[in-house]
Amino acid sequence: xxxxxxxxxxxxxxxxxxxxxxxxxxxxxxxxxxxxxxxxxxxxxxxxxxxxxxxxxxxxxxxxxxxxxxxxxxxxxxxxxxxxxxxxxxxxxxxxxxxxxxxxxxxxxxxxxxxxxxxxx
Length: 121
What we know:
This protein is an alpha+beta fold. The chain contains four helices and seven strands, in the order αββββαβββαα.
């Protein structure tokens, strides 16, 4: 809701499950930036955590990883990815804050807002 308010409802954030593999105790969610006017969706980060909640891993968009200086991490799919790991709620909120307030995220939001405003005219 805060993102939509900040962008004048041009860009909204949506969280949704991307895999139904909770039978193994692991949950996966994506956080997307959505511009309904353009029928456009951009995945900013992927969140993974177990049935206990923590630890949790955030896999941000690659340019955010570059900006934050993240190190290589072998993810659940067997591919290498860059992640922010959180051992508790405080660390998770700090990690989300660093991704959402990164220069890269702000630049992406600015571009999406500009595109939506031009389409709206």
